[in-house]
Amino acid sequence: MKKILLLGGHGLLGKEISRLLDERRYVLIAPTSAQLDITDYQALESILKGEMPTDVINLAARRNIDELEKDPLPGWQVNTFGAAAIGRILSKHKIRSSYFFMSTSYVFGSSLTAKAEDDAHAPVNVYGETKSVAEELIVHYCGGTGIPFWIGRASWMYGRARESFVDEVAKMLLRGEKYEAAIDQSGNTTSAAEVAGAVVSLCIEKQIACGAYHFLNEDPGRTSRFDIAREIASALAISPERVVPAESRDIFSGGGRPSISLVNTKIPPLRNWREALREYIVTRYTANHL
Asked: Taking residues 87-98, what's their average pLDDT?
């Protein structure tokens, strides 16, 4: 029987993964951040040695891009040192556990070509830097020690557990407001529920080869926030003219946000992004489903 330690299990992706693990009746240990401080090495060591989980899923993160530019320390503590400490402890004590770490597309810089899993990193903000270094340390501690590990990346996730860009657009349009969306920022809008399904089935259950993986809804082109917002308007039967094109510099402040799309080269993509997004919007925001 699998015993899974889930860190960051109360966030957007975490709640979806937690639900799936419960459905499969695995033994699930999911402490809150108040119950387990991932920056406390001794506390991590104690729970890993005491519980001896078969799998560790680490989704804990500080991801407020603008706040991390002002105060980077919490990002380095949680995103980097906490994440690396897990790999170090598993290796040091020879704990027979696999390790899944959720990273981000922001380890890459802006690019006109989609980034594959093993492309070179070039982060442009503190958040991306902290995750990039964490990836390197996890490979260092787990690679070559016999610890199965996977580094997951996704982009612009949405889901019911926490409001995202997708929900912000839908709510503003439903209130009769216009929405300014960046035309110069590309990414992959992705369903958290579908990412969760792929992580659990491919990594935790099938244990595919170690390494970095991109968990994405299929997107054959470069999709901007503007494109996504117009798709949301269409799903809500609202005029797409209510979505106003804008430059990212006029919308965002603080840390730079790279214009970057990811591509899958190792695993099949999830279903088409438009299909997944429209299903989410219609189910959550149309009158028949409210």
From this structure: 97
- Listed in sequence order, the residues at least 6 apart from 236 whose beta carbon sits closer than 8 Å to its beta carbon are 170, 173, 174, 281, 285, 286
Taking the alpha carbons of 107, 111, 114, 116 in that order, is the dihedral positive or negative?
Answer: negative
Tokens for 4? 């899974």
The answer to whether residues 8 and 58 touch, using CB atoms and an 8 Å cutoff, is yes
Q: What is the dihedral of CA 178, 182, 186, 192, to 10 degrees?
A: -40
d(Cα 272, Cα 41) in Å, to the nearest integer? 41
Q: Which residue has the higher pLDDT, 151 or 184?
A: 151
Topology of domain 3-157+189-218, CATH: Rossmann fold (3.40.50)
pLDDT tens by residue, 23-73? 999 999 999 999 999 999 999 999 999 999 999 999 999 999 999 999 999
> Which residues, 6+ apart, have CB-to-CB distance to 128 below 8 Å?
104, 106, 107, 108, 121, 258
In terms of Cβ atoms closer than 10 Å to its own Cβ (0-12, 13-18, 19+), residue 109 is middle
Q: What is the pLDDT of residues 155-188, one digit of tens each?
A: 999 999 999 999 999 999 999 999 999 998 888 9
d(CA 76, CA 61): 10
Q: List every span in the chain annotated with CATH 3.90.25.10.
A: 164-186+220-261+272-289
Helix (H) or strand (E) holding 102: strand 98-102
Q: Which H/E stretch holds residue 47?
A: helix 41-51
pLDDT average, residue stretch 111-136: 95
Instruction: Classify domain 164-186+220-261+272-289 at the CATH superfamily level.
Output: UDP-galactose 4-epimerase, domain 1 (3.90.25.10)
